[in-house]
Amino acid sequence: MGIDLLIALGLPLLLLIVGLLWFQANGGMPLWLERMGARSSLIWNIGIASIILLAIVKFLISK
User: For residues 2 and 8, is the Cβ–Cβ distance under 8 A?
Assistant: First the structure.
């Protein structure tokens, strides 16, 4: 269990730190990433709707 927790928490943290350092070294975020950040509410809404839809489909299939 200990190694699983370390991987589950450590790997995303490591990727976040490496990504932030890479962006800082290369002069900021790329233009496509800045444009994606401007529409973050749309991305969240689509994600939540997808999760709800998949939960409904799973429920209907299991009945």
Answer: no
